[in-house]
Amino acid sequence: MADRALDVVGIGNAIVDVLSHADEAFLAAEGLAKGSMTLIDAGRADKLYAAMGSAVECSGGAAANTVAGVASLGGGAGFIGKVKNDQLGQIFRHDIRAVGVTFDTEPAADGPSTARCLVLVTPDAQRTMGTYLGACVELTPDDIDEALLARARVTYLEGYLWDPPAAKDAFLKAMRATHAAGGKVALTLSDTFCVERYRHEFLDLVDNQVDVLFANENEIKALYQVGDFDAAAAAVRGRCEVVALTRSEKGSLILAGEANYRVAAEPVEEVVDTTGAGDLYAAGFLYGYTRGRNLGDCGRIGAIAAAEVIGHMGARPATSLARLVSETLG
Amino acid sequence: MADRALDVVGIGNAIVDVLSHADEAFLAAEGLAKGSMTLIDAGRADKLYAAMGSAVECSGGAAANTVAGVASLGGGAGFIGKVKNDQLGQIFRHDIRAVGVTFDTEPAADGPSTARCLVLVTPDAQRTMGTYLGACVELTPDDIDEALLARARVTYLEGYLWDPPAAKDAFLKAMRATHAAGGKVALTLSDTFCVERYRHEFLDLVDNQVDVLFANENEIKALYQVGDFDAAAAAVRGRCEVVALTRSEKGSLILAGEANYRVAAEPVEEVVDTTGAGDLYAAGFLYGYTRGRNLGDCGRIGAIAAAEVIGHMGARPATSLARLVSETLG
Fold first, then answer.
1. Which pLDDT tens digit goes with each residue over B229-279?
2. Nearest chain A residue (CA) to B314
3. In a domain, A84, yes or no
4. What angle do CA B327, B267, B124 make, to 5 degrees?
5. Are A68 and B56 an interchain contact pair (Cβ–Cβ within 8 Å)?
6. Backbone angles phi, psi at A178, to 5 degrees
7. Do B91 and A316 touch (CB under 8 A)?
């Protein structure tokens, strides 16, 4: 891979997470699909927030969590995403820069507030999300800093970015710019409902634009509309350079050409909150990938990073992943 | 005690905590006294925040944490304190109401933003705080809802409230109103530097206004300017109805007339962050006190509540204290 100053630039929705505990009855009463992300408007966000228990705020956003993870691993990372210039936007900007991620997207001066994701963690540690996109709808192709992308080995895009209408064009522009500059394009499918919303487009992207694809078991099954994991893996094999499929406690399966790499999940003392598990797996994987590690090791680093983030509330690492990986892998 | 709908109304600075990890060198470089609270202005708050690592936001404020604890114990609680009508103010209002605390103080429509406390947690789990008072300086005697105070058995005031100039008058008005309505006045000395700033006033309050006094070892030594805990305890004995002195892992000593109650600290698996330990001790103590428990039991409930809050980041209970106390005390 070309010698570049950055490993990964992420592009995604710039979101502050609002985390609270809830029970299954609360999810049912609010009509939220457990384990998934539901888009909500400002009015519904206010009502849901009012019904929620006391909460903790942490910066979030899928691709943002991933690049924060890359930085925590010691990698060079950048981010492109839209906040408003309000208190939550300042929190988002502070947190991502504080871990060393380059983040210079101009905040929106007016319009909707910085995006919030209301995260409800059930007693089984599963997270269910209601996202108010807020200022994310203001991201446009003009925000795609091609010079930043040209400095990175990988551009990492989240499927969620297809939800704010103008962001889709930004997404497509970023893919073109990345390839024009000789970089690799990585995509996460993000969420099963997100796959349902954009299946046709995602199938086309996977076949024609994506070099490295991330999906969990349910997402890849939804993409190919098959009920069985092995059938989904067979369907996606060979459609891009590398496919990393995560399966929670069953570990991950990495496909590259005809090769398979099976990686076990890292043991976790107590799973507290699964928010960010997939994001941090991608962080570890891409950190290894941009450093030329073999794909099994990439998956292993991903598993270590994911195990850290599910051991506490919140979707960003609470400790140095670089130290954790060096202690675990030796 | 008279039959009233509420156990405790707290009056204090309405603050959102911004918690981050830091090492001792960082505290030294920033000139922050470890374990204490330093008042900082908006400019210094911005600089300190920019220098801090990525953070987590949780509602805080000493008296606010205490009444949140009372509510978590199953008690009736209210709060008086000033936020601005901004995003952090909305977070503060949501969190305190979500645990069932009555909170109706009118938010400031303009002026400084909602107060922030930048909390730096060192590897030994000790917390060091830089507080930007923001909208707290807008609290005035007009905000003291005497009808609310008359509904409560105890009005709980934090010494920190002497820092915003107009709040002092609100504080004095609240004490008078509480006694006029037949309630009890409780005070926490808050912080050694706070005691140094207002020693003369605090000595006068303890002798003439306070029924229940809370202080930790360093604060009570600072109040009476003695170097020895036993001398400080002897100096304060008899100056108010009940004195509860906390000593971290050494437990607490409760003085009432000639009687002493020594309460052991509750065992904690891992001390993660001491933020809120004193606030939650006061919550447990006052919950027991307003329910007519003996003073040893009051201290024990305080110790259980404090042990819960130091086991995780943040100064509000992360679990139901009512359940915890019933499991522990049986």
1. 999 999 999 999 999 999 999 999 999 999 999 999 999 999 999 999 999
2. A56
3. yes
4. 135
5. no
6. -65, -50
7. no
Q: For B56-67, write each residue's pLDDT tens digit.
A: 999 999 999 999
Residue A304 has pLDDT above 60, yes or no: yes
pLDDT for B203 equals 98
Per-residue b/e over B187-212, b at no fewer than 16 CB within 10 Å? bbbbbbebbebbeeebbebbeebbbb
Structural domain range at position A314? 6-12+62-111+138-329
User: ipTM of the assembly?
Assistant: 0.94
H-state helical runs in chain B: 24-30, 42-51, 62-72, 87-98, 146-150, 165-180, 192-208, 217-224, 229-236, 277-290, 295-309, 321-329
Report the number of distinct structural domains present in chain B: 1
Q: How many CB atoms lie within 10 A of CB A258?
A: 7
Cα separation, A287 vs A279, whole angstroms: 12
B53 touches chain A (CB under 8 A): yes
User: What are the tens digits of pLDDT across the range A124-174?
Assistant: 999 999 999 999 999 999 999 999 999 999 999 999 999 998 899 999 999
Residue A54 with chain B: CB contacts under 8 Å: 59, 68, 94-96, 98-99, 316
Kindly report the CATH number assigned to the domain that includes residue B269: 3.40.1190.20
Take residue B281 and report the two structure tokens written for it.
């001790």
| CA distances for B327 relative to A23, B18, B70, B321, B330, angstroms | 21, 32, 17, 10, 5
